[in-house]
Specification:
10% strand; 11 helices; 4-stranded antiparallel sheet; 65% helix; alpha+beta
């Protein structure tokens, strides 16, 4: 695949993914009042309380967050992520204008809300997964999660969960507890769809990646600056050549595998990359070791009580 073809494929993923995500929001989640976290969840709340167009709200909320991400994580944060944000906003507004804000289902039928939770979750999962595969994202509250993970002991997954939990809790107060429960269902469907259908990288939270490349320094710098991750350099020798072969070992969350693959490809198209399932990741940026240790002690205590 040539460099031009690769960039065209990235553009296809971002455009198609943004459109599918917009379909899920405009046709199902927003009409059903399912605010399933993220900037889109806030936009849905703003539409049903203030009447603001969801696409416009996504734009107004996402661009400042993106600029904040650039200020904290550097200019390498990604023009592709900004493109994903702008396209999602544009497509959502276009669909609202075309279909209307009432969606495509009859919400006098209670079953329609359940169908919206499922259909919206699948479409948004497919869309976000395609955007992530390009190495980009749709911005929004993901940036807040990344900032929390960097400046607090919280893992990335926990940080994102907390941000979305606040939005879903707000939807329970504004709409109803039932709608918040539907939102939780949608979040789960989105997560499963991303992991199993689009990314095809398993269902656990992280991957261990080994990279062998002649452009090791360039790849190391990009991992540090663009992903905000560290790693370890392992030393070995090539079986055929006998030459020393430094190996980069890094652990990244599932949703960053696409970005890491793009980094490696961009710097060295001849690189060798091995991706393995990480059963459990303890330490900075993931589950704190202290938390896991206390959980282990708790399990031992419970087993002892049962044995008595």
């Amino acid at each position: 695949m040539t460099k031009r073809q690769y960039h065209l494929l990235e553009l296809f993923y971002i455009t198609t993914g943004s459109f599918l995500t917009a379909l899920g929001i405009a046709l199902f989640s927003s009409p059903a009042k399912i605010a399933s976290g993220g900037v889109s969840g806030i936009a849905i709340i703003l539409y049903h309380t203030l009447g603001l167009d969801t696409g416009l709200s996504i734009l107004i909320l996402s661009v400042p967050l993106f600029l904040l991400g650039v200020a904290i994580f550097g200019r390498q944060y990604g023009a592709k992520s900004l493109a994903g944000t702008l396209l999602l906003s544009l497509f959502t507004s276009m669909l609202n204008a075309w279909v209307g804000y009432g969606g495509v289902l009859d919400y006098t039928n209670p079953l329609s809300i359940l169908l919206s939770a499922i259909s919206g979750g699948v479409l948004m999962g497919l869309g976000v997964g395609l955007v992530l595969r390009s190495g980009a994202n749709t911005g929004g509250t993901d940036i807040l999660g990344q900032i929390l993970a960097r400046y607090t002991p919280l893992s990335m997954g926990t940080s994102l969960f907390l941000v979305d939990a606040v939005i879903i809790a707000a939807s329970a107060f504004i709409f109803s507890l039932e709608m918040a429960l539907y939102a939780i269902m949608t979040v789960y469907i989105v997560s499963v769809t991303i992991d199993r259908v689009v990314l095809s990288f398993g269902t656990r939270s992280a991957k261990t990646v080994f990279i062998i490349s002649e452009k090791r320094k360039e790849i190391e710098t990009a991992i540090l600056e663009e992903l905000g991750h560290g790693g370890t350099i392992l030393y070995g020798s090539g079986m055929y050549t006998g030459f020393d072969r430094p190996v980069i070992m890094t652990v990244v969350a599932n949703n960053k595998i696409g970005a890491l693959t793009n980094i490696v490809h961009r710097n060295d198209r001849l690189a060798f990359m091995v991706v393995q399932e990480a059963y459990k990741v303890l330490g900075e940026g993931f589950t704190p070791i202290e938390e896991a240790a206390w959980a282990g002690l708790s399990d031992v205590t419970q087993k002892r009580k049962k044995s008595r």
